[in-house]
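User: Run a structure prediction on this.
Assistant: Running it now.
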Amino acid sequence: MNITYTVMSKRYLRQLVEEGYVDGWDDPRLPTLCGLRRRGYTPNALFTFVREAGVTNTDHTVDVRQLEACVRDDLNENALRRIAVVNPIKVIIDNYPEDKEEMLTVSNHPQKPELGTRQVPMTREIYIDADDFAEVPPPKFFRLKPDGEVRLMNGYIIKYAGIEKNADGSIKCIHATADLETANGMPADGRKIKGTIHWLSAKYACRADLMLYDRLFDIENTAEVPEGKTYLDYLNPNSLSKIENAMIEPCLETAEAGERYQFVRVGYFCKDTKNPNTFNRIVGLKDSFPKK
């Protein structure tokens, strides 16, 4: 069994490791068991993948998206939900008291109430993701924008009030006002709020690095390399991207190595076993493999 966008030959894998193209035999981009384990793939997902791919007497290649679909289905069912803000922008809620702090109740898994809830701190200053704000919004943009309102996930409805910028034109912070009667509830006047965004308290959020893994090669079938080329010519230069200083929930700071979570609206991540304060992306939220 071969898998697209990778190599299964031990000789090729050894070359990748010994010549420093990857971070050892347990590099999360490799199809080794230790690499898959470090990335966060679950045993159940691997068994499911092998059963669905089947066994034949001839060489065949399986689409890697089928493996990712098996992992995604397993994690969607079993991974606890947590909040991470990948590209944080500070929002100051002007009418929220400076000295006020409260704990909002958030579900650990919206489809599994038996997994319980957790408490997330709310303060006057929060972080939202840069993608959830647009000073000049495109059509049908239902997140934070001038003259617009948006729901903070499991929290208040806030409305844009202004913006502060740095000397270079970048955003320093956004100002907003909150409808203080809507803490995880509907507005009294019955108005409809179309957008919901995730957020974290600026006071209590913790910093972490996110490792975003992609295909190891940018050629689908590494056995079909053109004459005069080698498989090394098709190594994907973007197979790993590192995001530094993302913001995560404070409870994730004590997560055990190997624990898996769904970062809401971001993807599935696993606490790295080698590097402290680092989470590896297992797979994204979107399924690109057709269902049977």
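The two ends are 20 Å apart (CA to CA).
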